[in-house]
Every structure is written in structure tokens, then in C-alpha cells.
Amino acid sequence: QVQLVESGGGLVQPGGSLRLSCAASGSILSIVVMGWYRQAPGQQREWVATIDNSNSTNYASSVKGRFTISRANAKNTVYLQMNSLKPEDTAVYYCNAFSAYGLNYWGKGTLVTVSS
């Protein structure tokens, strides 16, 4: 089992920045990919960014060039640095971990609101 806890959400003005954190615990050695997803009100959950065990990253086109995913502490923590935020980035952001056993784990989410 893997437990994920997100933090760092909040209210920010358009053009501002936030950094989200995701702390993983439990069977972290089984994790092969970690990522961030988001779900806006009335919308389906969508993929934002992922990072694998070789630190290879991928981004959704809507955030590429503005968001940066990174990891630290031997895979225990994953970050999402969000710059040049737009109102359409408003969503609950979820941390995800995919294990070598084909299991998906989710955090409870952290709310990001971009508004003036």
C-alpha cells in the first residue's frame, strides 16, 4: 500500500505561482511513476504531469512551459511548481502513484483557485 498526502494549494491571482507537494509513504519502493492530475468543477479528472524513476517527465500541452514536476528524497516527495497560473488552472489537484504491480494510488487532493 502507498499513502499520498498533498499540500500547497490555495488562492492565487492570475499570473502567480504555487508549489504543490505530495508526500508518499508505505510501499514507496514499488512506485514506478508519480504524477499530478486535476479536476475542475463539472469536469472529468485530467492528467497534468508525470515523472518516472529515471526522472523522465511528461506534461499535458495545457501546462507545458508553465508547470514543472520534480521529485526529491529518494522518491518520497514529488512537487509541482506552477507558474503563470490562469483561471482555467482552477481545480482540485490530485497526486498519483503507479506501482510495479499495476496498482494506482491517489491522494485526497488539494484545491487550487486562480482568481483576482
What would the keywords be for this entry?
four-stranded antiparallel sheet, mainly beta
Question: TL;DR?
Answer:
Helices cover 0% and strands 57% of the residues.
Fold blueprint:
Elements lengths: L1 E6 L2 E3 L5 E9 L4 E9 L6 E7 L4 E3 L7 E6 L4 E6 L8 E9 L4 E3 L3 E5 L2
Provide structural commentary.
The protein is mainly β. It has strands at 2-7, 10-12, 18-26, 31-39, 46-52, 57-59, 67-72, 77-82, 91-99, 104-106, 110-114. The strands form 2 sheets. Strands 2, 4, 5, 6, 9, 10 and 11 form a 7-stranded mixed β-sheet that branches. Strands 1-3-8-7 form a 4-stranded antiparallel β-sheet, with no helix packed on it.
The radius of gyration is: 13 Å
Q: How far apart are the first and last residues' alpha carbons, in Å?
A: 40 Å
The total count of helices amounts to 0
Share of residues in strands:
over 45%
* Large-scale geometry: globular
Content-based structural category: mainly beta
H-E string: EEEEEEEEEEE
Number of strands: 11
Regions with pLDDT < 50 over 5+ consecutive residues? none
Helix content: under 10%
Q: What's the main sheet like?
A: 7 strands, mixed
Mean pLDDT: 95
